[in-house]
Design brief:
Blueprint lengths: L7 E4 L3 H14 L4 E4 L2 H11 L4 E5 L8 H11 L4 E6 L18 E4 H4 L2 H13 L20 H11 L4 H8 L3 H14 L10 H13 L8
Helix pairs in contact: 2-3, 6-9, 7-8, 8-9
């Protein structure tokens, strides 16, 4: 296939996943392709290469800045950069941020990446309109229960093992307010807690299922 001369940056902290992404994009005809395993190395590549057309970023890059932080730093350096964020999280806010992607950036579930047609349509969309505010991954629609930023944060903190008192201090809420928020979460998530169920365990299980992993990101 003839190379598109689409200068591409791939950032993923998992070596094997990064290799597969690079190979897939190479098969699509993208290139030259540069890859990095963390935000710091990616920004160094931008300084060295100076220009990219598109960045394909993993949301969870391990310790340090996550994919949304990196997306904003890259867009600041390259204002017309097209951005695709790959995530196993049902909602990117579950990683611990209320910050969205830069305008025009598209979030795509990693479960969709195995469908090469879906991935290619998404890449073509953001390359054509890198800063269009209504961009959304083709065939993707919002999933799950709509939660506020505060509810997302409380669910994440419960899953990380913080007590209601500790959550209250972090969220500037009373312990009683946190307890009420936890009860509302149970109802809103339809967790069907029985009299013998530990609701915090149910919330944690829902959180882990929503991020597609048993790993909790460190602070």
């Amino acid at each position: 296939m003839k190379e598109r001369l689409t200068r591409t940056l791939v950032v993923d902290d998992d070596d094997f996943t990064r290799f597969l992404l690079v190979r897939t994009l190479t098969d699509f005809g993208y290139g030259p392709i540069h890859d990095a395993g963390n935000a710091s190395d990616a920004l160094q590549l931008v300084k060295a290469v100076q220009t990219f057309d598109i960045a394909v970023l993993d949301l969870d890059l391990g310790r340090g800045p996550h994919g949304i932080d990196l997306a904003h730093a890259l867009r600041k350096a390259l204002p017309s950069l097209a951005i695709v964020l790959l995530t196993s999280y049902d909602d990117p806010r579950l990683i611990g941020t209320s910050r969205g992607l830069p305008t025009g950036g598209v979030s795509l579930s990693k479960r969709s990446v195995s469908d090469e047609g879906q991935l290619r349509r998404t890449l073509d969309l953001v390359l054509t309109h890198p800063c269009r505010s209504e961009n959304r991954a083709p065939s993707e629609s919002p999933k799950g229960v709509a939660l506020s930023d505060n509810q997302i944060q409380i669910m994440r903190l419960v899953a990380e093992g913080f007590s209601n008192a500790e959550i209250g201090r972090r969220q500037h809420l009373t312990e009683r307010a946190v307890a009420k928020a936890v009860s509302r979460l149970v109802r809103q998530l339809n967790l069907n807690a029985g009299p013998d169920d530990n609701v915090r365990v149910l919330i944690a299980q829902h959180y882990f299922a929503s991020i597609g992993s048993g790993h909790v990101r460190g602070n």
